């Protein structure tokens, strides 16, 4: 087995972390029981680019117990939990990941899990693996399907589909209701704040917090910040989302105005250069910048470095930039995902649903091999409902069922008042 990690001796610590995660992931473990008995993924090679965390380990183990051979690389240079990577290697997983990879090492690791593994299915978080497969690999590639975990990746894949270059069907796991309504909102909402607090140990109550973007991630972050006593401003380019933020009780204004009054800034847009040098020059002395979007492009880090007269690391994941006007700006986690770089990522209970969707999406691709077009598909709604039902059962919640009369009523059109 090929692998490249930081330190195999960390495996015992990693196994305990994985055990802790699995205690809080009953939905995925219920699916694992069936996978272990039925082996629906037997003979399938899976290459995955995901955050190498204890929760991802629970997913990868489930896939392996379902019969798959799995190779794993990190979807972010700073998100790998090295003890988890070591533990997975001892479980027979080919892992190419360690915390603090350089950009070249990051892409070399992606290349490794494809070239040594010849995948049938690719799983991704951000679409870097999908892009590599399409740009670098030959037409003889054996891939017959893929999945995508995050909003940014789905946007990239839909662009590939629109341009007619997508070579295989992809399930947009991100678009499952039991993913984005919970993972994006509650998961990122809590974990991004966790990363900011761990990195800075600042008090949020009374601070002016600016959240760029009011998608599901932005909604979650804004509401968690408000819950901790911050005064929250939202910036948006989408008029409907901006209106929703207003109706939800937040102040809404352009970033050019918000930059003058914010104490903390969190980007969650999936777009590039949302906070630029022109905005940083307007900020208060001591302003804190954090990113919750997938790629480190939302804050213009390059521009910040070029504009700074000095840079120094103050504490782990906190870099101080002194601007030409004398103001100090504090950038968290190099502008990368603050929840995974400065903290542990989403709580296991949330990833339980996201990764249950991933497991079922892979099974769906295997069952429907050769039947799907080369396009991006939303998660089949019946699988979404299955995840929700298992999750509800695991937390002891029961719901009603439609009677036959009610089902009939919803399927006709003649009955009125």
From TrEMBL:
<keyword id="KW-0963">Cytoplasm</keyword>
<dbReference type="InterPro" id="IPR036291">
    <property type="entry name" value="NAD(P)-bd_dom_sf"/>
</dbReference>
<comment type="function">
    <text>May play a key role in the regulation of the intracellular concentration of adenosylhomocysteine.</text>
</comment>
<protein>
    <recommendedName>
        <fullName>Adenosylhomocysteinase</fullName>
        <ecNumber>3.13.2.1</ecNumber>
    </recommendedName>
</protein>
<feature type="binding site">
    <location>
        <position position="179"/>
    </location>
    <ligand>
        <name>substrate</name>
    </ligand>
</feature>
<feature type="binding site">
    <location>
        <position position="339"/>
    </location>
    <ligand>
        <name>NAD(+)</name>
    </ligand>
</feature>
<feature type="binding site">
    <location>
        <position position="53"/>
    </location>
    <ligand>
        <name>substrate</name>
    </ligand>
</feature>
<feature type="binding site">
    <location>
        <position position="271"/>
    </location>
    <ligand>
        <name>NAD(+)</name>
    </ligand>
</feature>
<comment type="similarity">
    <text>Belongs to the adenosylhomocysteinase family.</text>
</comment>
<feature type="binding site">
    <location>
        <position position="125"/>
    </location>
    <ligand>
        <name>substrate</name>
    </ligand>
</feature>
<keyword id="KW-0378">Hydrolase</keyword>
<keyword id="KW-0520">NAD</keyword>
<feature type="binding site">
    <location>
        <begin position="150"/>
        <end position="152"/>
    </location>
    <ligand>
        <name>NAD(+)</name>
    </ligand>
</feature>
<dbReference type="GO" id="GO:0006730">
    <property type="term" value="P:one-carbon metabolic process"/>
</dbReference>
<dbReference type="GO" id="GO:0071269">
    <property type="term" value="P:L-homocysteine biosynthetic process"/>
</dbReference>
<feature type="binding site">
    <location>
        <begin position="213"/>
        <end position="218"/>
    </location>
    <ligand>
        <name>NAD(+)</name>
    </ligand>
</feature>
<dbReference type="InterPro" id="IPR042172">
    <property type="entry name" value="Adenosylhomocyst_ase-like_sf"/>
</dbReference>
<comment type="pathway">
    <text>Amino-acid biosynthesis; L-homocysteine biosynthesis; L-homocysteine from S-adenosyl-L-homocysteine: step 1/1.</text>
</comment>
<dbReference type="GO" id="GO:0004013">
    <property type="term" value="F:adenosylhomocysteinase activity"/>
</dbReference>
<feature type="binding site">
    <location>
        <position position="183"/>
    </location>
    <ligand>
        <name>substrate</name>
    </ligand>
</feature>
<dbReference type="Pfam" id="PF05221">
    <property type="entry name" value="AdoHcyase"/>
</dbReference>
<feature type="binding site">
    <location>
        <begin position="215"/>
        <end position="220"/>
    </location>
    <ligand>
        <name>NAD(+)</name>
    </ligand>
</feature>
<feature type="binding site">
    <location>
        <position position="184"/>
    </location>
    <ligand>
        <name>NAD(+)</name>
    </ligand>
</feature>
<dbReference type="InterPro" id="IPR020082">
    <property type="entry name" value="S-Ado-L-homoCys_hydrolase_CS"/>
</dbReference>
<feature type="binding site">
    <location>
        <position position="149"/>
    </location>
    <ligand>
        <name>substrate</name>
    </ligand>
</feature>
<dbReference type="GO" id="GO:0033353">
    <property type="term" value="P:S-adenosylmethionine cycle"/>
</dbReference>
<dbReference type="GO" id="GO:0005829">
    <property type="term" value="C:cytosol"/>
</dbReference>
<dbReference type="Pfam" id="PF00670">
    <property type="entry name" value="AdoHcyase_NAD"/>
</dbReference>
<dbReference type="InterPro" id="IPR000043">
    <property type="entry name" value="Adenosylhomocysteinase-like"/>
</dbReference>
<feature type="binding site">
    <location>
        <position position="236"/>
    </location>
    <ligand>
        <name>NAD(+)</name>
    </ligand>
</feature>
<feature type="binding site">
    <location>
        <position position="346"/>
    </location>
    <ligand>
        <name>NAD(+)</name>
    </ligand>
</feature>
<keyword id="KW-0554">One-carbon metabolism</keyword>
<dbReference type="InterPro" id="IPR015878">
    <property type="entry name" value="Ado_hCys_hydrolase_NAD-bd"/>
</dbReference>
<feature type="domain" description="S-adenosyl-L-homocysteine hydrolase NAD binding">
    <location>
        <begin position="184"/>
        <end position="345"/>
    </location>
</feature>
<feature type="binding site">
    <location>
        <begin position="292"/>
        <end position="294"/>
    </location>
    <ligand>
        <name>NAD(+)</name>
    </ligand>
</feature>
């Amino acid at each position: 087995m090929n692998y490249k990690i930081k330190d195999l001796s960390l495996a015992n610590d990693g196994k305990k972390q994985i055990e802790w995660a699995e205690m809080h992931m009953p939905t995925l473990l219920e699916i694992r029981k069936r996978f272990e008995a039925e082996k629906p993924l037997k003979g399938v090679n899976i290459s995955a680019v995901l955050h190498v965390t204890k929760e991802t380990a629970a997913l990868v183990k489930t896939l392996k117990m379902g019969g798959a051979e799995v190779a794993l690389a990190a979807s972010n240079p700073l998100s790998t939990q090295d003890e988890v990577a070591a533990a997975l290697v001892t479980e027979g997983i080919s892992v190419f990941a360690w915390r603090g990879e350089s950009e070249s090492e990051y892409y070399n690791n992606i290349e490794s899990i494809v070239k040594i593994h010849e995948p049938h299915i690719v799983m991704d978080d951000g679409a870097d693996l999908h892009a590599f497969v399409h740009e670098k690999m030959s037409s003889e590639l054996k891939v017959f399907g893929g999945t995508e975990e995050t909003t940014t990746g789905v946007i990239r894949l839909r662009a590939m589909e629109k341009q007619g270059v997508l070579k295989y069907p992809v399930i947009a796991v991100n678009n499952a209701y039991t993913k984005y309504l919970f993972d994006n909102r509650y998961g990122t909402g809590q974990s991004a704040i966790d990363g900011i607090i761990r990195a800075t140990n600042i008090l949020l109550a009374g601070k002016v917090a600016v959240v760029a973007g009011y998608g599901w991630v932005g909604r979650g972050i804004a509401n968690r910040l408000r819950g901790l006593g911050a005064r929250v401003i939202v910036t948006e380019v989408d008029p409907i989302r901006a209106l929703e933020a207003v109706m939800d009780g937040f102040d809404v204004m352009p970033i050019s105005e918000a930059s003058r009054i914010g104490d903390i800034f969190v980007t969650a847009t999936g777009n590039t250069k949302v906070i630029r040098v022109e905005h940083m020059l307007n900020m208060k002395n001591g302003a804190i910048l954090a990113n919750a979007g997938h790629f480190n492009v939302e804050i213009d880090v390059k521009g910040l470095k070029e504009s700074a007269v000095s840079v120094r690391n103050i504490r782990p994941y906190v870099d101080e930039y002194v601007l030409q006007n004398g103001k100090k700006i504090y950038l968290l986690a190099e502008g990368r995902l603050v929840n995974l770089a400065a903290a542990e990522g989403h709580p296991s209970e949330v990833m339980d649903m996201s990764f249950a969707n991933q497991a079922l999406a892979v099974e769906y691709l295997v069952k429907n091999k050769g039947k799907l077009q080369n396009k991006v598909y939303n998660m089949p709604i019946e699988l979404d409902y299955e995840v929700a039902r298992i999750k509800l059962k695991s937390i002891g919640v029961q719901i009603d069922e439609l009677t036959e009369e009610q089902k009939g009523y919803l399927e006709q059109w003649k009955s009125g008042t």
